[in-house]
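Q: What would this chain look like folded?
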Amino acid sequence: MRFIDEFRDTGAARRLLAELPALLPDRPVRVMEVCGTHTHAIARSGLRRAAPEGLTLLSGPGCPVCVTSAGEIDATIQLARREGITLCTFGDMVRVPGSEGSLAQARTEGARVEVCYSPMEAVVRAEREPDREVVFVGVGFETTAPTVACALLDARRRGVPNLSVLCFHKVIPRAMLALLSSGEVRIDAFLCPGHVSVVIGSNAYLPIVEAFHVPCVIAGFEPTDVLQALAMLLRQVRDGRAEVETQYTRAVRPEGNRRAMETLTEVFEPADAQWRGIGTIPTSGLRIRDEFADMDALKRHAVTIPEAREHPACCCGDVLRGALRPSECGAFGRPCTPASPLGPCMVSSEGACAAELKYGAFEP
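A: My prediction, written as structure tokens:
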């Protein structure tokens, strides 16, 4: 069993880890994290394997690139191949396989695909290339959606007419409710995302505890943060409580970031959304409001979302629901690798498959 010694406060982390067995109730407990950064922090520090017997840590739909549906990926690739289009995207999207190829393959065939670290880069590019249509691919949860909203507002203020956004943004709490409603996977508690919660606030999880009596704790990203949050969750389960608690108090407030949420709601409105492995979840996505219809790439470029085929050997959907561990997929590690991925969970820097292959015990 490995517990990496490179992290800060490792002594405190070890003490917390030693305290967990005494907090376990008289039954197994399954905790799901719904944050790709948590997934990689847990894998990198060895927490999943170091957890005491009776405590299972599951990865859920916390990777924004991974939950982007196969049809949305295919639509993005098809748009990138159109004449006169410059498609801007975060780097993780470039190598995600669609039904027929990827954005990386489209780029080798002549498509203009540019990696951006911020949606504001797409605004600047559109301003510099007025003869081309610049499309930014808006993926991510409530963390990135306000930055995309700011980019659209800035483009409008600056009079940049050739920028639009292909909006595939999704919201986390609705997915958590959908997982509990399905009953497919037993989830006793949620380790809630830190970055998302900075924006939406802890109150956003109240419907989950009220409807399903499932404890929720928002955590930071150091091993001590995660372990403190796990201890808080186990105490709730042991005591029969279901509350929203915040371990990450240094960054998260009950009301969240009101300015960010106001900006988000100025540009976007709730919409049904397709989630890879889960299906359509009502009001779990964001769409661009009619007031900004000219900047909505779906409307501006008449983009349709096709029915897409998943690779028959890829189990990303099962992994995202917590129904399968990455290493339980028959393709994991061979033939599905970061160099030749069959699905997004092996590509994204927040993907559960990439985390388990990089930090887990799997050996080819």
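Residues 1-358 form a domain with the Rossmann fold fold (CATH 3.40.50.11740).
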